[in-house]
Amino acid sequence: MTAMPNVFAVTRTRGANWNSDLAMDQQDDWREHADFMNGLHKDRVVMLGGPLEGTSEILLVIRAATEDEVRRRLSGDCWSRTDILRIGRIVPWRLRLGSLD
To answer: Which of 31, 50, 60, 73 is most buried (most C-beta within 10 Å)?
Structure first.
């Protein structure tokens, strides 16, 4: 039996190789990163995502069976491998109002 997907609120933060002089879409390997994230969205893994204004964090709403699956999925991002972004927190989120369908 396959585990039911859970919902996680995930923050990613700037890693050691984030260039503070450049906008997000000017960072190294932007296109590869954007394509990867768009693929996770298309596969309905990442439901919502974007930078939190006024912070150095990105918020992702992710469907996965476990926290380990979240980590595994995000490890495929070139920005994870090159430490442009790293995971800040992964928190299970019990959605009580609205829908992600």
So the answer is: 60
| CATH number, position 73 | 3.30.70.1060
Token reading at 87 = 């995971």
pTM for the complete prediction? 0.90
Q: What is the 3-state secondary structure (H, E, C) of the chain?
A: CCCCCEEEEEEEEECCCCCCCCCHHHCCCHHHHHHHHHHHHHCCCEEEEEECCCCCEEEEEEEECCHHHHHHHHHCCHHHHCCCEEEEEEEECCCCCCCCC
Confidence label for 2 from pLDDT (cuts 50, 70 and 90): low
Which residues form the domain of 26? 6-92
How far apart CA 9 and CA 87 sit, in angstroms, is 11
Give how many domains the chain has, as a whole number: 1
